[in-house]
């Protein structure tokens, strides 16, 4: 068969991520601090951009009137209905209003009317990968990794997240548990129960509220906490003064035992969290504000104090464009103008997208805002994405490093997402924590070898109860709760018989 050359035209569809879209995606996942730094760099690079330092609306008369040659794009106001990003339709919904009608959107917020429920991205350089391999994890990351391994209900898990955020670089809890219980709308006993679980995490002594409790937790971990040690910890001031006679009387021990006890206390670490990497403390500024309105409505609005406002100087552009002579100069001016216009457009779309996602999260978790942490609902990215007609990846970027101020405190947007297991009967989904609790209950009910359930049998029982779950998921939950396999449980029962 002879070979020959020929030209063909083929038509096809493909997804191309343009540099402009890459910039828009990058802006979407930046935190407030990172966004401000990015805009500042753009202001230095692009001579056609200008930061708007004014407050409030432009004056209508007098010297406060804004120069008409400046094109203002307020990143908070929804003044550009129908604006469109160069993005796939399923990923970014261009020109969509975040919530409410036009009048509400102009105030960067909207009234969400429904009845109350019943019951950072960061961009590393070329050495980012190598840096990630050698970087010491932060204390909060280490604690959250352990939190994943314990089976806590959604309410307890939410309390644990707040407690982890309140741990300082030394490992001490800087939060009043009574105040936290009031703020989250739950019983003090529940907060104390969760704190007791967290105080069993590594490093030993973490989540202590003072030095005595920190040392006591470490001694309990070493199985060396007895009445004599408790008495010594109650009189640490005598140890600091080297009043050995007073310590001996307080502890009721002889000189040899006292020396051993002092050696053990001195071997403890009064700052258990110091071994972990600590990030520089930053002021937590919320991106979104939620306040309760009349008639059981929640008002959601952006925190305009943290959003940069930029202007495109049209007069300066006209002057430099007129003075450009060479093709290189004309190209530079055109590129600067296109970049400036796209930046203000991207900032506007970012603000509207954040507001839209936040409003849907508030709508889904209305029970938590109204009645407390016990009413957190199972929620995932797909649920929010489907409700607002966006892609899950967009919702994920929006909720990264973004914080929302509510009447119950300031929380990261990801705080409101709790995993769920679908119902086998098409009903309401089950929380993953509640499914783990069911599995643990089945195992705890085993009294004899004949009662021991295999993973397959547990799957059958759960499906009969309306929980659609796979065998591998049951095995994963069982291992996370450190429950032995059915074979090992039968052997243990046989040995104990």
From TrEMBL:
Sigma factors are initiation factors that promote the attachment of RNA polymerase to specific initiation sites and are then released. Residues 46-121 are annotated as: Disordered. Keywords: DNA-binding, DNA-directed RNA polymerase, Nucleotidyltransferase, Sigma factor, Transcription, Transcription regulation, Transferase. InterPro entries: RNA_pol_sigma_54, RNA_pol_sigma_54_core-bd, RNA_pol_sigma_54_DNA-bd, RpoN_core-bd_sf. Residues 129-316 form the RNA polymerase sigma factor 54 core-binding domain. GO terms for biological process: DNA-templated transcription initiation. The gene is rpoN. GO terms for molecular function: DNA binding; DNA-binding transcription activator activity; nucleotidyltransferase activity; sigma factor activity. This is RNA polymerase sigma-54 factor. It comes from the Bacteria. One of its GO terms (cellular component) is DNA-directed RNA polymerase complex. Residues 331-491 form the RNA polymerase sigma factor 54 DNA-binding domain. Belongs to the sigma-54 factor family. It comes from Caulobacter segnis.
């Amino acid at each position: 068969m002879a070979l020959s050359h020929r030209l063909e035209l083929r038509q096809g569809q493909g997804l191309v991520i343009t540099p402009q879209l890459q910039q828009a995606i990058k802006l979407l996942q930046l935190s407030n601090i990172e966004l401000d730094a990015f805009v500042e760099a753009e202001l230095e690079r692009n001579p056609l951009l200008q930061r708007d330092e004014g407050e409030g609306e432009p004056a209508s008369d007098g010297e406060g009137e804004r120069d008409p040659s400046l094109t203002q794009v307020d990143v908070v106001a929804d003044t550009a209905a129908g604006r469109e990003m160069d993005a796939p339709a399923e990923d970014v919904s261009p020109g969509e209003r975040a919530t409410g009608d036009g009048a509400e959107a102009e105030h960067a917020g909207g009234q969400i009317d429904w009845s109350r429920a019943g019951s950072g991205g960061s961009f590393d350089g070329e050495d980012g990968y190598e840096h990630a391999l050698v970087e010491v994890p932060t204390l909060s990351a280490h604690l959250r990794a352990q939190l994943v391994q314990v089976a806590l209900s959604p309410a307890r898990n939410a309390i644990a997240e707040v407690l982890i955020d309140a741990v300082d670089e030394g490992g001490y809890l800087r939060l009043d548990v009574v105040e936290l219980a009031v703020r989250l709308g739950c019983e003090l006993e529940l907060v104390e129960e969760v704190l007791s679980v967290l105080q069993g995490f590594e490093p030993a002594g973490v989540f202590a509220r003072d030095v005595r409790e920190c040392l006591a937790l470490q001694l309990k971990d070493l199985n060396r906490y007895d009445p004599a040690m408790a008495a010594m910890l109650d009189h640490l001031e005598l140890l600091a003064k080297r009043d050995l006679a007073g310590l001996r009387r307080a502890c009721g021990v002889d000189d040899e035992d006292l020396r051993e006890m002092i050696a053990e206390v001195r071997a403890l670490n009064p700052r258990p969290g110091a071994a972990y990497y600590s990030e520089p403390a930053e002021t937590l500024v919320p991106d979104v504000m939620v306040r309760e309105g009349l008639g059981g409505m929640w008002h959601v609005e952006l925190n305009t104090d943290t959003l940069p406002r930029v202007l495109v100087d049209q007069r300066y552009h006209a002057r430099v464009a007129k003075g450009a002579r060479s093709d290189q100069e004309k190209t530079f001016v055109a590129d600067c103008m296109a970049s400036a216009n796209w930046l203000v457009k991207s900032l506007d779309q970012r603000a509207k997208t954040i507001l839209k996602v936040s409003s849907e999260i508030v709508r889904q978790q209305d029970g938590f805002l109204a009645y407390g942490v016990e009413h957190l609902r199972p929620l995932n990215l797909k649920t929010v994405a489907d409700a607002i007609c966006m892609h899950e990846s967009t919702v994920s970027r929006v909720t990264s490093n973004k914080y929302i101020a509510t009447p119950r405190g300031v929380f990261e947007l990801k705080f409101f997402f709790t995993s769920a297991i679908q119902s086998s009967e098409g009903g309401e989904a089950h929380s993953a924590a509640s499914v783990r609790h069911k599995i643990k209950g089945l195992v705890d009910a085993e009294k004899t070898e004949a009662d021991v359930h295999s993973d397959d049998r547990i799957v059958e029982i759960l499906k009969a109860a309306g929980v659609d779950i796979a065998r591998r998921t049951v095995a994963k939950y069982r291992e996370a709760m450190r429950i032995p396999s059915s074979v090992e449980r039968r052997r243990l029962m046989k040995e104990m018989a």
